[in-house]
Design a protein that fits this description.
The chain is about 60% helix and about 0% strand. By secondary structure, the protein is mainly alpha-helical.
Length: about 80
């Protein structure tokens, strides 16, 4: 599976998920942890129920590829962006 077969909005959502997860895992007493948890939940729902998963023949390999692409691609979205 090549990177071009994954929708850009899905990749952006996964990048934001990864950034939010890392922000939540980092010790930072000034952050609103509840807001980060809510954002993580919204992003996970957006990724899981994205129309891409129902319109094409995808399997577990596509989800792994999405994770890898989100980690290696440039321009990750920060936890505060929506």
């Amino acid at each position: 599976m090549d990177a071009h077969s994954l929708p850009e909005d899905l990749v952006k959502a996964r990048r934001a998920f990864t950034a939010t997860y890392e922000a939540l895992a980092a010790p930072c007493p000034g952050q609103d942890r509840a807001a980060l948890r809510r954002r993580l939940l919204r992003l996970s729902v957006r990724i899981w129920w994205h129309p891409y998963w129902t319109t094409s023949r995808t399997g577990p390999a596509a989800r792994v590829r999405l994770r890898e692409l989100a980690r290696t691609s440039t321009g990750p979205e920060g936890p505060g962006e929506r």
